[in-house]
Amino acid sequence: MTAVDILKQTRYKISASPLFISLKMIGMVFCFLLILPFISYANAAYMATFFTSDMKNLLKQTFFQDHEQSSTFFNNKRAVYCDHSTIEFNPSANSLNNYQLHYGHIQNLTVLAYAEDEHAQAILVHSIRNPSINQYPHVTISVSNKSPYTAVYSNDLWKRLVDNGIIEVNLDEHDKPQLVLLKNQLNEWQGKLSSVGKYEETQAYVKIMDQSIQLHGIVCLSSLWTNEKCQK
């Protein structure tokens, strides 16, 4: 028997040993656990009020613009949304059971105000039924999608406006904004938002709606909406 044959047999015995198999399984499980959060995030569902094509076109025509009131958009390629207002991201099984009663139901939203800066455009909305768990329920109109300014920034944009003392909000029984007031008692404001955390100083613009704008959408889970299971 040659040295090569002996080496091959030794490798086979090691790879077939219970200890080696156990260590290999542990390694596989460890690798899976490392990537699990990313898999879960990529496949995460969300409950939302989804808009039909007609309503999305209305939002684009009414609110999507070239940020004329704020500084330039840095020529970023914008991701235009206008397609939903999130009720809850990645809801628990218990929440899903509660939401099932509302699948396919019409949800009415009132537009309270519009805001933009160099990175995003968003409207603040109010609903009576199925209130969003977001601190500032909103519809993302567009966003630069350059980190950290992704779609979730829409909620933070409104928070920055409140924290900077630019706007005041009156809350409803669910602690959600139902009325927005500007500190200058006008219906428009333009100026700078101070930097905070991962967000840089930005040039922003806010407009309070001087006439009621009503939106209508359909309550659904994102995966079901994609497969047209909630549309009537």
How would you summarize this macromolecular structure in one to three sentences?
Helix content is 31%, strand content 32%. The chain is an alpha+beta fold.
Commentary on this structure:
The protein has 232 residues and is of the alpha+beta class. It has 2 domains: 3-40; 45-226, 2',3'-cyclic nucleotide 3'-phosphodiesterase fold. Helix content is 31%, strand content 32%. It contains 6 helices and 10 strands; from the N terminus they run ααβαββαβββαββββα. The chain has helices at 3-16, 18-42, 53-63, 93-99, 153-163, 222-226; strands at residues 46-50, 79-80, 84-89, 106-116, 120-126, 138-143, 167-171, 177-182, 188-193, 202-221. Strands 1, 2, 3, 4, 5, 6, 9 and 10 form an 8-stranded antiparallel β-sheet that branches. A hairpin with an 8-residue loop joins strand 9 and strand 10 (202-221). The longest helix has 25 residues, at 18-42. The protein is globular, with a radius of gyration of 25 Å. The model is unreliable at 28-42 and 68-76 (pLDDT under 50).
Key structural traits:
232 residues, two-stranded antiparallel sheet, 6 helices, 32% strand
For the report, how would you describe the main beta sheet?
8 strands, antiparallel
State which percent range the strand residues make up: 25-35%
Helices, by number, come to 6
In CATH, the topology of the largest domain is named 2',3'-cyclic nucleotide 3'-phosphodiesterase fold
Total count of domains:
2
SSE order, as H and E? HHEHEEHEEEHEEEEH
- Describe the global form: globular
Helix content: 25-40%
Residue runs with pLDDT of under 50 for 5 or more positions: 28-42, 68-76
The mean pLDDT is 80
Q: In angstroms, what is the radius of gyration?
A: 25 Å
State the end-to-end CA separation. Answer: 76 Å
CATH architecture of the largest domain: Alpha-Beta Complex
How does the helix and strand content classify structurally?
alpha+beta
Q: How many beta-strand elements?
A: 10
CATH class of the largest domain reads: Alpha Beta
